[in-house]
Amino acid sequence: MVLMVDIPQLPVPLLPLGREWTVDDLELLPDDGLRYELIDGALLVSPSPFPPHQRAARAFFRLLDALCPADAEVFFAPLDFQPDQRNSLVPDVLVVRREDVGPKKIHRPLLLAVEVLSASSRRRDMLFKRSVYEDAGVASYWMFDPTEPSLLACELVDGRYVEKVRATGEGSVHLDRPFPVRLCPAELAVG
Questions:
Q1: Is there a domain that residue 138 lies in?
Q2: Is 84 inside any structural domain?
Q3: What angle do CA 162, 87, 69 make, to 5 degrees?
Q4: Cα 116 to Cα 122: distance, rounded to the nearest angstrom
């Protein structure tokens, strides 16, 4: 006797067989609330962030948007930065020249990429994304940890990131790039 079992049909994943992922492949993925990114042709999939992460990202957006000059624009995730065919990153907050904003994506180097760290993204943000942003000519890269709270701000000098500012807790710091701003990690952590 053959037992018939009704197995639900699951979607077949869209995998590029025998090659790396490209930004063109991302267009074929579902709009399912997950964050899809590429680093050197490898697909990274992240779940939706938790409230502490979103509070910090919102605080960065509000602060930067209020100070942003007319020739630049501040965006929050999800918006893809695709410097080439093998890399597509979704910074939590980004600043870009208005003239560099495309109809769907941004391909020109950002003025600033901000990543809010979480347990699942810390290594990716501090090592892999940092490397891609650096190679792509992103002028400033800020990494913020809402659990400590702490900020590490790097600036591109001669093609490499150098640490500009490191701040924790109630300490207030001033940065000049991409435009003058005062930051306090403790204030950013509560959103």
A1: yes
A2: yes
A3: 55
A4: 9
